[in-house]
Design a protein that fits this description.
Number of strands: 12
Strand content: 25-35%
Radius of gyration: 24 Å
Shape: globular
CATH topology of the largest domain: Muramoyl-pentapeptide Carboxypeptidase, domain 2
CATH class of the largest domain: Alpha Beta
Number of domains: 2
Distance between the termini: 92 Å
Order of helices and strands: HEEEEEHEHHEEEHEEE
Length: 295
Amino acid sequence: MPRTDRREFLLLGAGLLLAGCTSSPEPRPSPRHSSSPSVPRPSTPGGGPTATPSAPPLPPVSPWRPDPADLSPRAKATAVRAIERRDADRGSVVQVLEAQYGGLLADTVSVLVVTRSWHRRGRAVVSGGATYDVRLSRTTAGWRVTAVHPSHPGAPHRSTDEERRVLGSGRIDLPPAARADVRSGRVHVSVLTALLRLSERYRVGVSVVRSGHPLHVFGTDRLSDHPQGRAFDTFRVDGHLVVSRDTPRRLVTGYMEAAAAAGSYNVGGPYLLGQGPQWFSDATHHDHVHAGFTG
């Protein structure tokens, strides 16, 4: 009786390289191929192979890059790369939504890296996100990360009408940490009503509300309004980045004036609109509009 030929198959794994956004890409080595023999699959009682459930794929992400008009693009790129590596090491993928300044001085910087992220939990893909206050110092070789402070919004509470309206608005874009801030009940009603009023005229792209922002005004000992739930930052207005040279100046100044009309006592941005404590402009705020409230 003729013998039946047998064939053997060797399944080779492929390494997946996740690359972060950086002005000086640093390649990471791919995992080595395994040389161990293949292990036979278990069989079902009927003799057929048992299907092995495949792990759910994580969504693709796009690299974040500084705008050409940014004052210190290497500082931002260094901060973003640190956060991308941090999540990759934990088995997550992260989409950086924005990197804005929490403070910009000559040799020290706070970069607020606003993210959305995904990770596997069993056979499910779970979404999340945080805002990181990344501190950097200037060295002879460039910028060096000295500390990373992740956001801690707090547990959700029973929401108010203003909170539900802000969270449900299609004209107020809140990143994960800012949404959690609103759900926590720690955002003052003056901030919520101002956002709702601004959204009647503009599509508001919020970067930071409460958590993830420095406790003090950067470089000073003055408490910031953000951790007290009395401020929010806007990095995009009607789809236009505040930092971009292509964004009409009148769009940004009009938004700043509208924020003041909505009750902000302290409006800062890339343009100085007037004298007095209500208006300010500095290097830190060239990439976003700050609106603070007394309560």
